[in-house]
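Can't paste images in this forum, so I'm doing it all in text. The chain is below; anyone willing to post the predicted structure tokens underneath?
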Amino acid sequence: SMVKSKLRHNKKLYVLDTNVLLHEPESIYKFDEHAEFIPLRVLEELDSHKRGKNEIARNARQAHRYLDGLLSNIEISELDKGISLSACSVYPSPNHQGKLFFQTFEKERAEVADNEIISVTRQLSDNYANSEVSVILVTKDINMRIKASVHGLITEDYRNDQVSNVGDELLFSGQVEITD
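Text version of the structure:
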């Protein structure tokens, strides 16, 4: 299936929600040896946030620059193999064994962005059902984490220095950052 054969060394595939990139564009370089996946809807949402002078708009533009820089290093025909984060990292580090994948498969569009991103994550999760790869949706949005958990997905909150696991403690995770 889509990225399965390319993921032997990456035991985790992190699906990044838009708000993670808007919160910290550098997050794409912070998943160490793991693989990351960016849904098409996230690219569209970034686009819709990039106008203006506020921090969200600046972060949206910065995330686009990082993604554009990563894409400029590969042949588009190679996109399915994932983009190595080690070669072109703004944080050069031997830990960047990770790969970045973009959604290249069609998925029916949903009116609500969250539902579409959850649906794409579900499809990935189904694809890896019989493998050692865990598919994990990373989002700053607690409601989305709850919805994804209801769909049987593993979710994590993104925190600047580490990715904290959200499991049974989902509803009791202490402070929630509220953003508009």
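Strands lie at 12-16, 35-38, 83-84, 99-102, 134-138, 154-158, 163-166. The first strand starts at residue 12 and ends at 16.
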